[in-house]
């Protein structure tokens, strides 16, 4: 999710032109080789290995105190993963998580960014910093902090609520999903505010002035001028958010130490981890990972498709 | 009754041993390495136990042929076994590893450990152990580990709160429930103990104590009974305690648990001998010195106990120098010097005879209101024989933990053990093992 948004398209195209003119082909290759070498080693090779793994299965027999046999099983692992109640349940949970998280986070980020853009210059710097600050806290630490804030008996929040007569267990079966969404919103809103705010800065001031001359107030200007103009940035955010959501792992794994409500297969990534390291079924874990990657690919395709249509319209 | 159980246990063990060797599936029977008289070299040792660095250093200082490099790894709950298992599979695991009893069979079954037969001096090590501990480290006819500690399940109470409630130390589970009710009468907000949904091994110990057998072998098949009659009795009983708010459902070792012990909201801990330091650490600051006592876990009528925790030392498949590793494993598991070197790292109770007094000397038990080691000794002498761990504890462990997640929102303990049974059987079958329910 923390991937930088590419801003070097201009530089790349000039380089391309130069390469076409025939002087820098060798230089380009020289500069690109290290990247592709590492990419092949750290990305392509493991993916291929996973795909190969996912087509095999280790079969023991009898009591199991002997060598396991490895055999080719085709798509069997994939069927098993997709038939697994806990894996499908995890996808369902992830869908609910998205339904809660994406509107909260993106809506919040948009609101903050528009407010920041409308604010006076001095307050802007301060609020920008304040809003961004949670993102500077690593995910693991954030989850630990929130686990503490959610735990009854130690959390100041819970005890304040209790003294106000509100009995709320943030960690029980029903509340756990909103509780985890809250952590993610807290972590990611600030980051996305900065992205959107940067986009807002690029909105031509003449257009805004023209709108103002035509009698548009701040709200009208925000909704009718600024919002349509930052749609590309918004779609980039959506893309990263959707992919990031599929990779949900850290927060629930940490919270699972504080409550039994988060099971070991709570989301698909945890399912894959559990398959690999608890059930020692690397083949099934590989199949699950490939399925998750495919889901990410399909979803990102859908998001880009949808947003490019939006941009055109 | 008891002798019969023992006999049955022995018979089934022998039967399984015969079969395992019979079908020739013991991997290294032919290639068993022979003990070198005078091994030397450098070996690595992984453990998550505190103070093991000192033991390795003491071993290095005691002789000059073998050099042990010690590395701390995270404990099982924090991913230690995932690390160990992956490293062994990749061929860069340690020579000597530390594995708890429930996880041991799955490492054996995954072919990740070397049998110790032929490497260690059996007469001086394995043969001196009790049958109950031997059963934890021998599979088929081979020994795969030397046991370190053998942790009897122990019940810890706040004596002052029992006095306040006007009850003595509960002897049976019936007494325990009665004591809980009386405690509620004098301190309505207090719980007598907690039920730990994160500790499937504790449910196992409670069931073991009640005579359950979660895993066993029948011919060439595993017999799985995670919801057998004895376990159902235990599950129903604990559900009753939860419903009456005699025990609180909470994760052990969590912040909530620590806070409740310190504040006196929970006045008992169902744990083991190793719980002592944990209790002391969490309650010392709130002035509870002298109030905590150890007691034998309540029983179902006749004194009985089970192991709850404990680790063993093993030689992994990745060891290139098993002879040197074996010398170190012997030292770790049977030498008084090793125990001395470790110093005061908790109220250890060790499997090898003659070691516990050394550990006892190093441990300052003055925080507690009674002679805790006397209680450990008594509890240790009543371990129910015939328990066996299954070929993949992690499946049962996670299934049970996951099912317990619903306890706070209307789930039942009995449903949880049923779920764990189904998941275990399905999981084992999926890996190709033959399973009978």
TrEMBL record, chain A:
Membrane topology: Multi-pass membrane protein
Record-level GO BP terms: transmembrane transport
Subcellular location: Cell membrane
SUPFAM superfamilies: MetI-like (SSF161098)
Transmembrane domains' residue ranges: 28-57, 94-115, 127-149, 229-249, 285-304
Gene3D superfamilies associated with the record: MetI-like
Residue intervals of the ABC transmembrane type-1 domain: 97-303
UniProt keyword annotations, A-Z: Cell membrane, Membrane, Transmembrane, Transmembrane helix, Transport
UniProt xrefs under Pfam families: BPD_transp_1 (PF00528)
A cellular component annotation (GO) from this entry: plasma membrane
InterPro entries hit by this protein: MetI-like, MetI-like_sf, UgpAE/MalFG_permease
Alphabetical list of PROSITE patterns matching this protein: ABC_TM1
PANTHER family: BLL4140 PROTEIN (PTHR43227), DIACETYLCHITOBIOSE UPTAKE SYSTEM PERMEASE PROTEIN DASB (PTHR43227:SF8)
Family: Belongs to the binding-protein-dependent transport system permease family.
Protein name: Sugar ABC transporter permease
Organism this protein belongs to: Paenarthrobacter nitroguajacolicus (Arthrobacter nitroguajacolicus)
From TrEMBL, chain B:
SUPFAM superfamilies, sorted: Periplasmic binding protein-like II (SSF53850)
Leader peptide range in chain numbering: 1-17
Matching PROSITE patterns: PROKAR_LIPOPROTEIN
Gene3D superfamilies, sorted: Periplasmic binding protein-like II
Entry superkingdom: Bacteria
Keywords: Cell membrane, Lipoprotein, Membrane, Palmitate, Signal
Keyword Membrane: yes
Protein name, entry field: Sugar ABC transporter substrate-binding protein
Native organism: Paenarthrobacter nitroguajacolicus
């Amino acid at each position: 999710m923390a991937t930088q948004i590419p801003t070097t398209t201009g530089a790349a195209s000039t380089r391309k032109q130069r390469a076409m003119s025939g002087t820098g082909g060798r230089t380009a290759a020289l500069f690109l080789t290290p990247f592709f070498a590492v990419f092949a080693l750290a990305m392509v090779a493991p993916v291929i290995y996973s795909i190969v793994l996912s087509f095999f299965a280790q079969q023991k027999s009898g009591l199991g105190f002997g060598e396991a046999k490895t055999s080719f099983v085709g798509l069997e692992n994939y069927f098993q993963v997709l038939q697994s109640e806990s894996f499908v349940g995890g996808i369902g949970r992830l869908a609910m998580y998205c339904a809660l998280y994406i509107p909260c986070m993106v809506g919040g980020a948009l609101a903050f960014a528009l407010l920041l853009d409308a604010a006076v210059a001095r307050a802007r710097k301060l609020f920008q910093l304040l809003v961004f600050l949670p993102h500077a806290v690593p995910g693991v630490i954030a989850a630990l902090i929130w686990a503490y804030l959610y735990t009854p008996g130690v959390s100041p929040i819970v005890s304040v609520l209790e003294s106000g007569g509100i009995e709320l267990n943030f960690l029980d079966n029903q509340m756990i999903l909103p509780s985890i969404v809250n952590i993610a919103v807290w972590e990611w809103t600030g980051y996305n505010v900065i992205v959107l705010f940067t986009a807002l800065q690029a909105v031509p001031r003449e257009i805004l002035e023209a709108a103002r001359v035509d009698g548009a107030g701040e709200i009208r200007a925000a909704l009718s001028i600024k919002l349509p103009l930052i749609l590309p940035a918004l779609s980039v955010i959506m893309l990263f958010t959707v992919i990031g959501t599929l990779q949900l792992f850290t927060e629930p794994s940490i919270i699972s130490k504080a409550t039994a409500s988060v099971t070991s297969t709570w989301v698909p990534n945890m399912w894959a981890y559990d398959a690999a390291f608890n059930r020692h079924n690397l083949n099934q874990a590989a199949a699950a990972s490939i399925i998750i990657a495919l889901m990410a690919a399909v979803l990102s395709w859908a998001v880009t498709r949808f947003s490019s249509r939006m941009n055109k319209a | 009754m008891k002798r019969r159980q023992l006999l049955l246990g022995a018979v089934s063990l022998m039967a399984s041993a015969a079969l395992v060797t019979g079908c020739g599936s013991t991997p290294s029977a032919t290639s068993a390495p022979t003990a070198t008289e005078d091994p030397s070299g450098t070996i690595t040792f992984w453990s998550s136990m505190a103070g093991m660095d000192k033991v390795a250093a003491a071993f290095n200082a005691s002789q000059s042929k073998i050099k042990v490099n010690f590395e701390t790894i995270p404990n099982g709950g924090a991913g230690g076994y995932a690390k160990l298992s992956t490293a062994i599979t990749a061929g860069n695991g340690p020579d000597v590893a530390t594995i708890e009893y429930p996880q041991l069979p799955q490492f054996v079954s995954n072919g990740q450990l070397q049998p110790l037969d032929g490497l260690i001096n059996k007469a001086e090590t394995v043969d001196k152990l009790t049958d109950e501990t031997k059963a934890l480290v021998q599979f088929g006819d081979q020994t795969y580990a030397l046991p370190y500690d053998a942790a009897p399940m122990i019940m810890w109470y706040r004596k002052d709160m029992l006095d306040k409630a006007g009850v003595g130390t509960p002897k049976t589970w019936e007494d325990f429930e009665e004591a809980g009710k009386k405690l509620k009468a004098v301190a309505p907000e207090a719980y007598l103990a907690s039920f730990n949904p994160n500790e499937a091994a504790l449910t196992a110990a409670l069931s073991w104590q009640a005579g359950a057998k979660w895993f066993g072998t029948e011919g060439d098949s595993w017999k799985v009974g995670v919801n057998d009659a004895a376990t159902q009795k235990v599950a129903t009983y604990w559900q009753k305690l939860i419903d009456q708010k005699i025990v609180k459902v909470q994760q052990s070792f969590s912040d909530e648990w620590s806070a409740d012990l310190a504040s006196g909201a929970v006045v008992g801990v169902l744990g083991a001998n190793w719980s002592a330091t944990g209790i002391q650490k969490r309650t010392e600051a709130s002035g509870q010195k002298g109030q905590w006592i150890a007691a034998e876990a309540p029983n179902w009528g006749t004194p009985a106990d089970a192991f709850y925790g404990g680790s063993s030392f093993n030689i992994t498949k990745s060891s290139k120098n098993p002879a040197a590793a074996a010398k170190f494993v012997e030292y770790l598991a049977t030498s008084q010097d090793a125990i001395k070197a470790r110093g005061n790292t908790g109220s250890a109770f060790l499997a090898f005879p003659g070691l516990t007094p050394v550990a006892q000397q190093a441990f300052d038990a003055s925080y507690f209101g009674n002679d805790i080691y006397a209680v450990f000794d008594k509890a240790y002498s009543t371990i129910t024989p015939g328990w066996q761990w299954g070929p993949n504890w992690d499946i049962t462990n996670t299934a049970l933990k996951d099912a317990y997640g619903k306890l706070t929102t209307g789930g039942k303990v009995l449903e949880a053990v049923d779920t764990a049974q189904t998941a275990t059987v399905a999981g084992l079958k999926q890996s190709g093992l033959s399973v009978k329910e």
